[in-house]
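Morning F.,

Quick status update on the modeling queue. The single chain you submitted on Monday has been processed. Sequence for confirmation:
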Amino acid sequence: MAVSPVILNLRRWMDDNVDHFQPPVGNRELWKEGSQFIFMVSRGPNSRNDFHISPSDEIFLQLTGDIRVDYRDENGCIESVTVREGDVLLMPAMVPHCPLRPAGTWGAVIQRVRTEQEPDCILWYCKNCGDRLNETWFGLSDIEVQVKAAIDRFNGSEELRTCANCDAVHEVAGPFVMPLSAGVGGRNRNGECGDDA
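Structure tokens below.
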């Protein structure tokens, strides 16, 4: 555990590390050790259609540009919230969510380090019938490596991307582009619901 405060210039750090942010996730941790928190910077574009379940609340601080975060509500419906530049979003623990970042955006995400009894999950829902398509649970030790590995594994297997319920094949996500119809902040219903929240 650190005994002295640690300070860095975030904008300078972002400039120095700009080439290290790559899809599908586009994230980097500032400190890998010595903190009770995971402080991560994310840069768009990302290429995601998975949902993350975190045992920790996540705080999103949008530094540059606007992003969209999709999430499953308590009724199994997919909702969307637009996070504008300068906004802060609190995503409660255990809510399946998918941050979608267009090119040129920068954000920070803060969450706490997990205990050994608190696994994370990356999962996909069938876009055709809403069933859980695939899920990967893991003890989080390196968020940069493990989330990307789960996404790459899923994307690389048509078998994993094929729904057992309706045989629809889930597409591999391309770089996210913010729709022109994005609301002025706040929540929007995507219209996709499922019985399996």
